[in-house]
Amino acid sequence: EYLQFKRLLEFKNLVHAYTLSVDGIDFNGKAEKSVTEHSYNMLCDALEINRENVVKPHQTHTDCIKNVDNNFQKTSKEYLENVDGLLTIKPNTDLVLSFADCTPILLYDPVKNVIGNIHSGWRGTAQKIGQKAVQKMISDYGSKPEDIIACIGPCIGKCHFEVDEDVKNIFEQAFSYLNRNCDIIEKRENKYTYRYNFNK
């Protein structure tokens, strides 16, 4: 099972999906290798894409974004280490990232035909990985901000994301331009915790 964005379905040359958690399906390599391979094969068949075109980085909650270009096949495995965002303009290239309760950000520039898949956990959000991805599309591929479509996938809600003072300070420093009384930050009664939704 998977979800898709109506906005992105308008583009017939673009394939995208956000898979749901289903028993017996694994894309993270936590199950037996045969289960993971079977899961990828099922997904690729459903989306009519080639398994050999799948590119998946080793994510570690960074703000590191890499390009998958024509020279990608010549790069070492280290190229995809500690990477939480991928961009490409290369046809038939499938950018795959894993998300639990972190925020998926899908980017698409239909003019330059650039796609991006971004994993934005709280650390990546604090480091503004979404903004950096857009800036990289502009600098590396010549995209214009007004042409870029951004879709935010399912993620943890503000009602469930409680943090303590140390994380609160990190976010307030990173987003100092925000009004501290806005609804993105909510201090709960009788608890010294805050609720955040900074990919809003």
From TrEMBL:
Q: Which GO terms describe its molecular function?
A: copper ion binding; hydrolase activity; S-methyl-5-thioadenosine phosphorylase activity
* Gene3D superfamilies for this protein: CNF1/YfiH-like putative cysteine hydrolases
Q: Does the keyword Transcription apply?
A: no
Q: What keywords are annotated for this sequence in UniProt?
A: Hydrolase, Metal-binding, Transferase, Zinc
Q: Which reaction equations make up its catalytic activity?
A: inosine + phosphate = alpha-D-ribose 1-phosphate + hypoxanthine; adenosine + H2O + H(+) = inosine + NH4(+); S-methyl-5'-thioadenosine + phosphate = 5-(methylsulfanyl)-alpha-D-ribose 1-phosphate + adenine; adenosine + phosphate = alpha-D-ribose 1-phosphate + adenine
Q: Which family does it belong to?
A: Belongs to the purine nucleoside phosphorylase YfiH/LACC1 family.
Protein name per its UniProtKB record: Multi-copper polyphenol oxidoreductase, laccase
